[in-house]
Amino acid sequence: MHTLAARMGFALRHNVIRSSRALRGCVEVEACSTPGHCQHDHTIQLKKKAR
Hints:
The chain is of the alpha+beta class. It contains two helices and two strands. The longest helix has 12 residues, at 20-31. The chain is flat, with a radius of gyration of 13 Å. It comes from Klebsiella pneumoniae.
């Protein structure tokens, strides 16, 4: 599934296929380790699922 999704331009995460083109910026912000010294918009908080 991961290979098929990647070939189609998508990323498979937690059994959900997401468009990598649409979310590329979100991934960059999520992975950013210097929120005070970057050009990313960190004002939107990502919701985490309760376990």
